[in-house]
Structure formats: structure tokens, C-alpha cells
Amino acid sequence: MEDTHSVANLIDSATSKIQLQKAFAELEGCRAATLNLKWKELEAHFHGLGKSLKRRFHELEDQEKEYESKTMEAREMLVISGSVRPTGGLCNSSFVGRSVARARAPIVSMIRLTHSN
Hints:
Helix content: over 70%
Radius of gyration: 41 Å
């Protein structure tokens, strides 16, 4: 009788072991899917951040190029007008003052004419 009892216990433990193994495999499957889902979400998030940073970097590069271009244009205009020497130094203040006065005179005359009518 003890042998039958041992055999029954052995069968029960084998069945329990198989059930436990199935439950564990199912649990691992759920955990892997959850972790995989979380990883995919993180991966998508970082991919989005990378794209955003690259776009912003290129925007800033374009702005920098535009700024440098405008700076060069302004410098060239100042050199042509004689306000700045080609080496980048300003001419003496009296020369600059006369240049401003020459540029300002026609504008002031136009303002006076429009207000006098």
C-alpha cells in the first residue's frame, strides 16, 4: 500500500511540476512581452528625440550661416560707404558723423516738407 501511495505522490508531484512549469512559462511570456513593449516605447521615444535634436541642430546651423552672411553683407556695405576701413576698424568719429549727417539730411527735408503741407 505504501508503494501505491508513493506512486500517487510521485504522479501528483509530476503533474504539479508540469503545471508549475506551464504557469512559469506563461508568466515569463507575459513579462517578456511587457518588457519588450516598454523597450519598444523607449526606443521610439529616443528615436523621436534624436530626430528632433538633428532637426534643431540643422535649423541652428542654417541660422548661423544666415547670420554670417548678413554680417558680411553689412560689413561690405560699411566698407563701400567708407564708414569702416577694409581692415574692420572704424574711421574717425568726425568722418562717421559727416556720413550720418549726409544720409540724414534728405530724410529730414522730406519729413519737413510732408509736415509743412
